[in-house]
Amino acid sequence: MTSQLPALGALYINPAGGCNLHCRHCWVNEGSFTGELLSFEDWKELLSQSVAEGCSYLKFTGGEPLLYEDIVSLYRYSADIFPKVVIETNGTLQPEGLWEAFAEKKPFHVSVSLDNADARLHDEFRGQAGAWEKTVEFAEKLVKNKIANQIIMSVSSVKRQPVVGMIKLAQQIGTGTLKINFITPSGRGKTDNFFDKNPIEGIIEFFTWIDKETPQGVIPSVPAALLPVNRLKNHGYCPVRNLMGVLPDGTFSLCGVAFSREEMAWGKFPDITVHEAWENSPVYKMIRSSLPDGLQGVCRVCIHRDSCIGQCVVNNMETGGSVTSPDILCQRAYDAGLFPRTRLLDR
User: Cys bridge to 91: 20, 62, 117, 138, which one at CB 3.0-4.6 A?
Assistant: First the structure.
C-alpha cells in the first residue's frame, strides 16, 4: 500500500444476489442482480486481500446477505480475520448453523430492519406476510445471545405515534438502540420519500421532539449539525473516503450504490485485485479529490464538514446531482433560517 493512499478502513459487501422481501423503500431495488455470483473461494481471497490493505471493519449488507448459500462459512472466515464484523439483515432468515457460528465468535454488531410495532403495517411495508413475527424472533435471539444489536426503523413521515410504538417494542425486546432512517428518494423510495413529503419546519420540530421526549437510545439518522450536542456521542459518520463496496459478482462500488448507478462502479474481482481497485478506481479517486473540500452549499461552511462530509453522498447525488451537493436537510434548514448558527464556520 503506497503512502499516498488513504487507509482502506471499511469494506461493505453484498454477497447475495437479491432479497426475499419486496420493501416499498428499497434503494438498491432489492439488490436484484443478473450477473454471476462471486464464488465462496473468491470471497475468501477478496477478504484476505482487504485485510492485507489494512481493512479492519467488514459489513455484510444487501439485498439480504443471509440469502447467500455459504453465508455461515463466509461469516466464520470473516470473523477470524476482521476485528469488527457487522451484519445488516431483515431478520426473516436463520440459516442452519448461524447461531452456532455467532456463539463461536460474536459479530461486532447486528442491525435488524423493523419498521412498525403493528405487525400488519410492517408486513405491508416489507411485502411479505409473517415478516414481522420472524424479525421480532430474530431480534429477541440477538438479545438472548448477548450480541450487540440495533433495530432500524424506516420512516417517510414525521408522525410520532409509530416512533412511540417502536420505542415500546424495542424496550420490550431489550434491543440496544433504535435507529430511525428516513426514506431517501432513490430506488423505490422515490415515490414515498421523507424529504419530499415533509416541510423543513415540521422536520425540525420532529427532531426536537425526538431529542426532548425520547430516550438517548433513539438515534435519528440526522446530520450532525442538526443534532444537539448531547446526542452527538451516539452519532455515526459514513467513512466514505476510506470505504470500498463490493457487489455480488465482485464489482467494486462505492457502498452498494452501483446497484442502481453504474457510473459508481469500476472493475471486478478477481480480474483486478483489491489493491488495484483501491489505488486506481476513478470512483475512489474522485471521492478523495472532491471531499470534503469540494462540498457545496451550507456543508462547505459547516463546522462538521470534515467529519460529516455531507452525511451521505449517495443521497446527495439523488437530491442534488453530485457527490459534492449539500445534504438536503441541512440546506433546506439553512435556506429557511433554521440552521443553527453555532455550527457555521463564519458565525
Answer: 138
